[in-house]
Write a structure and sequence with these properties.
This protein is of the alpha+beta class and 177 residues long. The protein is 31% helix and 32% strand. It has 5 helices and 6 strands. Strand 5 and strand 6 form a beta hairpin. The chain is globular and about 40 Å long. This is SnoaL-like domain-containing protein.
């Protein structure tokens, strides 16, 4: 992988793995950066580990392409006043990488707390970049046409509302490096 962990400024230091699961250095970097993203700590450098045409999928969105998935990650800080990782464990170091993640979110403005138990599925390309990330709440994604229509709408509307920095300087001014 062209981008090393040292110049990305990843805040997550320790990755918990299931017994018998060992991650390579590049897999560690990817998982640590993904954990930072889920904690509401995005940066352009962390997103440099993603392909331009990558896809982020969760029950609320299907975001394909850098402009759409970047807005989803930067949008977490806008939507939640608190984000706390309660636990995580990588359970498979293959491709895809499989990780269980439990996160507590507090919705800004109304103070509603929500705990999300996710199965995170990280698909890497041949160069070790993220080509798809699935965030399956309670191990599932919606499969019906109406839900998928709203998920696509979210992917289009969030980038209109959320500012994604253009470069490292702007990212730093936003407090993201």
């Amino acid at each position: 992988m062209a981008t090393s962990a040292s110049n990305i400024n990843i805040e997550t230091k320790d990755v918990q793995t299931a017994p018998g699961v060992t991650l390579s250095d590049s897999q560690q970097t990817v998982v640590r950066s993904v954990l930072d993203l889920f904690a509401g700590r995005p940066s352009l450098r962390k997103l440099s580990l993603w392909r331009d045409d990558a896809t982020f999928v969760d029950p609320l969105t299907i975001a394909q392409g850098r402009g759409k998935y970047a807005a989803q990650w930067y949008g977490l800080k806008a939507a939640f006043s608190e984000i706390e990782r309660l636990e995580h464990q990588v359970k498979d170091a293959g491709n895809p990488i499989l990780m269980d993640l439990k996160t507590r979110y507090v919705v800004k403005g109304i103070g509603k707390e929500q705990i999300i138990q996710s199965e995170v599925v990280i698909h890497l390309d041949s160069e070790g970049k993220i080509e798809k990330l699935e965030d399956k709440w309670n191990g599932k994604l919606p499969e019906n046409a109406i839900a998928n229509a709203f998920r696509h709408l979210n992917a289009v509307s969030v980038p209109l509302l959320i500012k994604v920095p253009k470069d490292d300087e702007e990212d730093a001014k936003m407090g993201n490096l």
